[in-house]
Amino acid sequence: MESSLDLAGCMQRIAAAGLSAGTSGNASLRTPEGMRITPSGVAPAMLDARSDVAMRLDGTVLAGRLEPSSEWRMHAAIYAAHPDAAAIVHCHSRHATALACCGRGIPAFHYMVAVAGGADIRCAPYALFGSEELAQHAVSALEGRRACLLGNHGQIATGHSLESALSLAIEVEELAAQYLLALSAGGPRHLDDEQMREVMERFAGYGQPQERGA
To answer: Is the pTM here over 0.90, yes or no?
Structure first.
């Protein structure tokens, strides 16, 4: 089904949900030529379809009147490494970023952690924003996963559409908030490998067919 959400609308929903402040965060869509990505340093409210930057994954700009997001290398590297990813959302949501600033991922404290594709949500090591080093750290943390935290930075989520990537980013933020609360209450009980394996098997047949793998 054709997506009803464009890049500008996605960024505006990110802002409305409180997932990023100011001009932070970015989003992209895979295209036959490479990707379309949001521009650098533009407030979500000012974005529209004309703001998109069309690029090849090697960084060649094909169309657009603005500079692409400074994180284009990270988006490009993820598309190159994960052919199933059709959309990417990156944001600095409060609780996920707090964990990332502690260098902590999200372990199997709740079965919904499996929504990101595995038994945990990893935290990639810190690297300078916009750098190739950060791009490669993100690719590694996303191996076998659909979302990860970025050390001292934020979070990134992928999906088969902008809707599914945004939905996953919202879920990761909620899980991060729950995990921080559980830590403050003395530390959560973790589910074991077998329990998480059962969850992931159940998730494989959960929801409507077109949404599986979101």
So the answer is: yes
